[in-house]
Amino acid sequence: MAIAASEPAGNDIWIDHRLGTDTVQVHVPPATPEQVVFRAADGGFCLSNDLRLLGRIGRSRLDRRAVHALLQYGAIPAPLTLLSGVERAAPGHVTSIDLSSGVATAAVNHLQPREAADGIRFDRCLDAILDTAPKGSVLTFSGGVDSGLLAARLSALRRTDVWLLNFSFGDADPEAKHAAAMARHFHLDFEQTTYESTEMNAFLADIGRDYTYPFGDFATISANLMVRAGIKMAPDAPQFIDGTGADGAFGVGQLATWQKLYRLPRPLLRGAAGLYSWAGLWRRPSRFEHRTRALRRAAQMPLLEAAVVATNALDGVLYRLPPPDRAYLSRAIRTYIIDCAPSTDVRDQYQWLDLLHVCAGEYAAKSFDPLRMRGVRASFPFLEPDLLAEAFAMPREIKYTFRDAKLALKNSLAASVPAELVYRPKSGFVPPLDRWLTEEPLRGVVQRISAEPGALADYLEITRLRRIVERAAEGQPLTQGVRNFVWMVTFLKLWLDQQPWFAD
User: Fold this and answer.
1) Which of 283, 314, 403, 447 has its CA 20 to 30 A from that of 183?
2) Do 231 and 336 belong to one domain?
3) Among the residues of 378-476, which ranges form H helices?
4) 104 with 123, same domain?
C-alpha cells in the first residue's frame, strides 16, 4: 500500500496523514481489488489493507448484512466489511477519518473529464500503461479479446521480455487450442499449464492465507491454480498482467433485455418469482428455469442490482434476506457506486457498477491477493483510472452495440490477428465445477460444510442445501445460481475456518 503526501499515479491507494492533524485521508481508486479497512479499538485507531489483521483486534463478529451481501451479490459493498465494527473506505472516494472519534466521511473522487476519445488515443493510453511493465512480467493469456489485445499491444511495443501464460482444463479444452492459435501471431513466448487435481488440496487449505477478504466467483479455483503454476514456471517474475475489466468498460451485457423485463406487469413478475420457488425450478437447469430465474430477480431487486450484481435468485429458497438488510444493501450499492458513475445515463451506471463491484471486487480479486502474498505485483490495465477515463470518453457507438460488446477492442485486435480469431462467440473462462464437485477433495469439503456449517447455519436453509450438495456429488448438474451459491458458502466457510481469531 502506498503512503504518501502527494497523489501517486495509477491504481495505487494513497493514504495521507499530515503531522499535527487528527485526520487521515484515504484515496481509493475506483476499480482496485485492494481494500482499505479501519476500526477503533482499545482507545486507538487501526487501519489496514488486510481485513484479517483487524480481525485479530477486538472481538470479531460477523456482520449479518455483509454475509447476506456475499450470498446474494458475491461481494460486500462499502462501507461494510464481513466483520461488525470494521468499515471499508469506499472505492472511487476520498475517505476522511477523524482519529479521535473514528468517524469517517466519504467524498466522491470523480474521473477527470476528457474530450471525446477514439480507438487510436485509447491504444496509446494502453501502450503507456503496458510499457511500464517490468522486464520478465507474465501476461495471463486466455486467447480472448481482452488478453489478446494486451498481447497485441505488447508485441507492437516489442516487449519480447513479457511472456504469455495460458491455463488449460485439459486436452479437450477448445479455448486452450484457440489461445495457442492466437499466440502464434505475436512475437512473445507462449507457455501453457494444465489443471492438476493434486493442486486442489493445496488451494483449499490456503484460502484463508491467500485471500484478505472473501468474495464469490467459482473461477477463483482456476485463477488460483494458474497463479501457483505460473510462479513455479517463472519464480522471478515481478508482475502478472491480467485483462480483467474490459467487459465492464466496453459493454452493457443484457441491459436492454433486463429493461424489457421491468416493463412487464408486477403481478406477472411476482407470479413467476413464486413459481420458481414453489415448483423447485432452481434445482435443475433448463431453459424455463433460466427465464423464470430472471423474472424472479426482476421481482425482488432494482434493475441494476438484478442485471449486474445478483449472483442468484435464491433469496427465500436457500437463504432469507431480511427486508432491513435488503434495504441497507441497496442503499449502499446506490450511494457508493451507482450514484458515483461518470454520468446519470443508465448505461454508464451499469458499466460503473460492473467495474467496481464485479470486475474489481470479484474477478480481479481472484488473482490479486494470491500474487501479493507471494511477493508478485498484479496489474490490471483495463482497471487503471487513466484507461477508464478514456473508455468513458469514447462515443458509445465506437465502444459497443447491444449485440456486440467490446467493439472498439475487437477492431483494434483485428489489426493484428485474423478476424475469425476475434469475431466469434464468447465462451468464457468457465471451470468445470459440476465435475469437480463429484471428485475429491472438493466433494468431501463441500459435504462437510453442508453437514457442519457452524456460524453460517443462522443464514442458510440447511436441509435444502444438503440435498443440493448430495445431488451435486452424484453428478447431477446444478443451475447457475445454485452453483454460484454452493461455491460462495464453501469459500466463506473455509476462509473463516482458517482464521485463528474467528470462533465459529
Assistant:
1) 403
2) no
3) 385-393, 396-399, 407-413, 433-436, 442-451, 462-473
4) no
Backbone angles phi, psi at 322, to 5 degrees: -60, 140
Counted domains in the chain: 4
- In this structure, what C-alpha cell is assigned to residue 300? 425482488
The Cα–Cα gap between 254 and 256 comes to 6
Distance between the two ends of the chain, CA-based, in angstroms? 31
- Please indicate, yes or no, if residue 59 is contained in any of the structural domains: yes
State which of 108, 129, 152 marks the end of a domain.
108
For every residue of 272-327, DSSP letters joined together read HHHHHHHTTGGGS--HHHHHHHHHHHHHHS-HHIIIII---S-BTTTB---HHHHH
135 three-state secondary structure: coil
Query: What is the span of the domain harbouring residue 324?
Result: 255-344
Contact call for residues 73 and 67 (beta carbons, < 8 A): no
Q: What is the pTM of this model?
A: 0.95
The residue among 108, 141, 172 that closes a domain is: 108
Query: Are residues 217 and 307 located together in one domain of the fold?
Result: no
Q: Is residue 311 part of a domain?
A: yes
**Can you give 387-400 as a three-state secondary structure string?**
HHHHHHHCCHHHHC
Among the listed residues 315, 308, 300, the one whose alpha carbon sits nearest the alpha carbon of residue 352: 308
At residue 360, the pLDDT reads 97
CA dihedral defined by 178, 180, 183, 187, rounded to 10 degrees?
-160
CB 363 within 8 Å of CB 242 = no
Parts of the chain with a pLDDT under 50: 1-6
Position 281 scores a pLDDT of 97
Contact 16, 24 (CB under 8 A): yes
354 domain residue, yes or no: no
SS3 call for 57: coil
